[in-house]
Design goal:
globular, alpha+beta, 77 residues
Length: 77
């Protein structure tokens, strides 16, 4: 993860927490599939994906773990 992606991840988590959401951030080198498996095991409804591609596009993805659908959201910090 680049320094820019790390910084944006922290800002996004802070914003979501301020809005009353429970947020966990995965900074390890874990592959996305493993992180999704963990989210499923722990019963998390939504997962936010913010990687290098998302940073380049200025968007993050919100994945609904129940339906498998995802939505792109533009961030503005």
């Amino acid at each position: 993860m680049t320094a820019e992606a790390f910084s944006i991840s922290l800002k996004l988590a802070k914003t979501m927490r301020r809005d009353g959401l429970r947020v966990e951030v995965e900074f390890g080198k874990k592959k996305i599939g493993k992180a999704m498996d963990r989210a499923n095991r722990e019963g998390m409804r939504y997962v936010v994906v913010l990687g290098e591609d998302e940073v380049k596009s200025g968007k993050y993805k919100i994945k609904d773990m129940n339906t498998g659908t995802d939505e792109e959201v533009r961030y503005n910090f």
